[in-house]
């Protein structure tokens, strides 16, 4: 392949535009495929030209570098937003926003995906991290995951839920993150009575026209909360929206959408007995700031971009928290945010 005029290929793009952190320098190549054919063409181009693909979804759990590697293709599946329903099986492509699962579930009259409401990532990213909210995980109703293995060219690979090695915020895809790219998944629904309704869902019309929810957290929250507000008071099914209303109260109350962030920065260490946020509170870490990055004043496991923060600012705060935990608790918390290293960056693991 000799042409750079490929569908979905953009050049000289600020990665901050693709991240809920709103952090990241200018990348030489960014891939935004809308189909599996475009995706395969971009991967072929990268392979032939010795360019390293770096995969991501909605950029909600990523910290992009201040100085991106010029020989990298930052490839997002965010614009791959297909959905199909066959009986009690729901196929969703990797770029579908997780919050849309809750919207689709409501349209089908099921509560299987209520917990995904206001989760800002994509389905592919959610599977990669086994996204959760309280005691619910995206892997709970998963059947199969479809992915591309760069070491086995020639098509889409499929893996069963049992082979995905799901655990607390972990999956087999993390171990293979450089080579495996999730492109879609199948879920088993608790009921298939709403099968006829799926093509008629008005919320899917925007996706068919290429209109995606915003990436920036305030606008993202407004998009989905606006949908919920429009559904309130619409009759008997109004009570089915109660779990989503509780999620709004919880997440808005914790200022999850007030400033750019990636949500929780560290994985909880359940052997200690308390979540990372509570342990950080005991050390008075709330509000600590480095540059323009700050530990949230209301949640000790969230680092916010309060205006113009760099990846270096966030990493400095991550190190500060790790050192404080190591001194006082005897363990170093593991980051859940995926930190992409640039030309001159490093991270203690």
Automatic annotation (TrEMBL):
Keyword Magnesium appears in the UniProt entry: no
Catalytic residues (positions): 264 (proton donor), 336
Keywords: Cell cycle, Cell division, Cell shape, Cell wall biogenesis/degradation, Cytoplasm, FAD, Flavoprotein, NADP, Oxidoreductase, Peptidoglycan synthesis
Keyword Cytoplasm among UniProt keywords: yes
Pathway info: Cell wall biogenesis; peptidoglycan biosynthesis
Domain annotation FAD-binding PCMH-type: ranges: 22-192
Main location: cytoplasm
PANTHER family for this protein: UDP-N-ACETYLENOLPYRUVOYLGLUCOSAMINE REDUCTASE
Role according to the record: Cell wall formation.
Name the UniProt record assigns to this protein: UDP-N-acetylenolpyruvoylglucosamine reductase
């Amino acid at each position: 392949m000799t042409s750079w005029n490929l569908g979905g290929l953009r050049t000289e793009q600020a990665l901050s535009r693709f991240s809920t952190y709103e952090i990241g320098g200018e990348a030489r190549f960014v891939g935004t495929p809308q189909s599996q054919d475009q995706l395969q063409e971009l991967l072929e181009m990268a392979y032939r030209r010795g360019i390293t693909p770096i995969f991501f979804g909605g950029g909600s759990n990523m910290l992009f570098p201040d100085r991106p590697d010029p020989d990298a293709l930052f490839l997002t599946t965010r614009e791959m937003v297909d959905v199909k329903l066959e009986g009690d099986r729901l196929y969703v492509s990797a770029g579908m926003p997780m919050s849309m699962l809750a919207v689709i579930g409501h349209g089908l009259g099921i509560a299987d995906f209520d917990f995904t409401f206001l989760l800002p990532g994509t389905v592919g990213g959610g599977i990669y991290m086994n996204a959760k909210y309280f005691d619910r995980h995206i892997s709970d109703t998963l059947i199969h995951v479809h992915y591309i293995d760069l070491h086995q060219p020639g098509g889409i690979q499929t893996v069963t839920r049992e082979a995905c090695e799901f655990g607390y915020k972990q999956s087999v895809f993390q171990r293979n993150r450089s080579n495996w790219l999730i492109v879609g998944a199948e879920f088993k629904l608790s009921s298939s009575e709403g099968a006829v309704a799926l093509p008629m869902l008005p919320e899917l019309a925007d996706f068919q026209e290429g209109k995606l929810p915003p990436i920036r957290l305030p606008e993202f929250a407004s998009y989905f909360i606006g949908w919920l507000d429009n559904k309130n008071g619409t009759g008997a099914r109004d009570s089915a929206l109660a779990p989503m209303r509780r999620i709004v109260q919880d997440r808005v109350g914790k200022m999850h959408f007030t400033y750019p962030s990636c949500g929780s920065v560290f994985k909880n260490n359940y052997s200690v007995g308390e979540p990372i946020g509570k342990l950080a509170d005991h050390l008075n870490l709330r509000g600590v700031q480095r540059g323009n990055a700050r530990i949230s004043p209301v949640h000790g496991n969230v680092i916010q971009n309060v205006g113009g923060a760099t990846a270096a600012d966030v990493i400095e705060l991550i190190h500060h928290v790790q050192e404080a935990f190591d001194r006082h608790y005897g363990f170093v918390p593991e980051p859940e945010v995926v930190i992409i290293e640039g030309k001159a960056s490093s991270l203690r693991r």
